[in-house]
Amino acid sequence: MFSLLLAGSTFVGAVYAGSNYSTSLAGSNGSTSLAGTTVTTDYGTFTYSEASACACSQLSTSYPEHLYFPNTSNYTYYNLEAWDIRTNTNPACIFSPVNADQVAAGVGIISTCDAQFAIRGGGHMNFPGANTINAGVVVALAGLNGLQISADNTTVDVGPGNRWYDVYSYLEPYGRVVIGGRLKTIGVPGLTLIGGVHYFNNKYGFAMDNVVNYDVVLGNGTQVKASADCNPDLFWALKGGANNFGVVTKFTLNTFDIPLVSTTLQFFNGSGVEAFLQAACDLSANNDPSIAAGAVITTTYNATTKALTASLIGVQAGTESPPSRFENFTAIPAVRSINNVSSMATFAAQLDSPLQMLRIEFAVHAMKPNGTVLYQMWQMWKAAVDDIKDVVGLYPTFVANIDPKSANTIAKTNGIGNVWGRDDTESSIWWQMSTGWDLAQDDLRMTTWIQKVSGEIQKFAIANNVSSEETDFTYMGDAGEWQNPFATMPAENVEKMLTIRDKYDAGGAFSRLNWGGFKLPY
Q1: 178 and 126 share one domain
Q2: How far are the Cα atoms of 108, 176, 179, 247 from residue 103, in angstroms, in the given order?
Q3: What top-level branch of life does the organism fall under (predicted)?
Q4: What would the pLDDT profile of 364-398 be if each residue is shown by its tens digit?
């Protein structure tokens, strides 16, 4: 979980200019004089390969209004539509289609040229290469932002260019809610394809469990549907299998009759942290699904001033205020509490995580809910933060994401399942380190520190019998790039996904050419 709570120039390096620029690049056989051209942007220098030159030239010829080359205003705009500054790269070109047919044609061109590419939805995954690429093609889906509720209001078609706040706002007049992201700037496709944590997981499952149909462009440019009745193997694989199978151009999602939600924002000082973490464990272990409720549970530490803070963002369906599901937190003396009743859209509008604000790194592991051990783990984290207090712009947080067992029961009982295949006999806590900083010169130091410290804390958890190599689970949305989420899924599910991938992507576009996010073993 993202733990921030916050109320046309000339193409450089080529000899072409003017209105004929894009059409003068491609040769009759798909080769192009761009190949070998070196380009410098604000984020570095790259050289066009034969493949990237081929793809960019053909896309420019076919879709001149939707293909952007470096050092143009549209290129810069789409290149910076990402949350983490670390992800800023130098794409060879950016393709911004506005419908599924254009996506299909574009992916077909890219595959034929054998060019490397990345797919970007909301751009919220937080490590380099997750949703962009150096010297390859970025397919930016922002233009596919359609929204259409069904005649009976029980489902909604959502384009992958939407962020979750767009969806909540669209559904507000209907009094409906979908299971989506907890912060307004999170994109629809990334969160849905990797699982999807929402406040109401305890009652309705994860975002992936609430997709009833995917429209998908495969690696060869073919368009297919995936549902319980059509390509059901692909339907299953897309429920947590990430971007290993195709580009989703439309999600059809369940909606729920929740016109109003009861919310609580509670803030505590350092003296309340131990009780705060115990309350988090209690909430995960005892989050009865009769009431839809969930939370964002975060602690922060300023190693310079030694200031400690803890914050709860609690959301419960309905109008009971304050929401009773968070009474264990309410019992802790708070610095400030704010309770309110509003629509989900009105509440989500307050929870921003601005793009291009920080350099960010995550790490996540799963443990049994045990407040005593979790507090000891938090103390280890706090001590480790003191070692990096000289880092400019340091913003360290320790997050306790609740994982009630009822969330996994949904997949066990809906006749479809998901790729996680998780046990539903015991709840867990996904403890997460989320750390921000300002300067690129600290990237290696910070990523090394996070990997080392999170590993030491996980070893402590295993030694204290609240985790194990067998029960640990790595949620993709909160994982560091060195972690391997697929290794924490059942081996038979991974083998099944590989078979499905090879069936639907025989040419390997999403294994050889598309490197974004977490990939299945090749």
Answers
A1: no
A2: 8, 30, 26, 8
A3: Eukaryota
A4: 999 999 999 999 999 999 999 999 999 999 999 99
Q: In whole angstroms, what is the distance from residue 405 CA to residue 442 CA?
A: 39
Which residues have CB under 8 Å from 259's CB, separation 6+? 175, 176, 343
Q: pLDDT tens digits, residue range 197-215?
A: 999 999 999 999 999 999 9
Domain boundary pick from 140, 175, 207? 140
Closest CA to 407 of 219, 199, 138, 214: 199
Considering the domain architecture, whether residues 48 and 173 belong to the same structural domain is answered as no
Query: Is-contact 251 225, C-beta < 8 A?
Result: no
Q: What domain range includes position 43?
A: 22-140
Buried b (16+ CB within 10 A) or exposed e, 426-453: ebbbbbbbbbbbeeeebeeebbebbbeb
Cα separation values, 356 from 20, 120, 191, 387, 445, Å: 34, 15, 19, 26, 20
- Count how many domains the chain has: 3
Cβ count near 284 (within 10 Å): 26
Q: 84 forms bridges with which residues in the sheet?
A: 358
Residues 6 or more apart whose Cβ sits within 8 Å of residue 19: none
Amino acid identity at 279: A
- The closest of 488, 512, 490, 491 to 501, measured between CA atoms, is 512
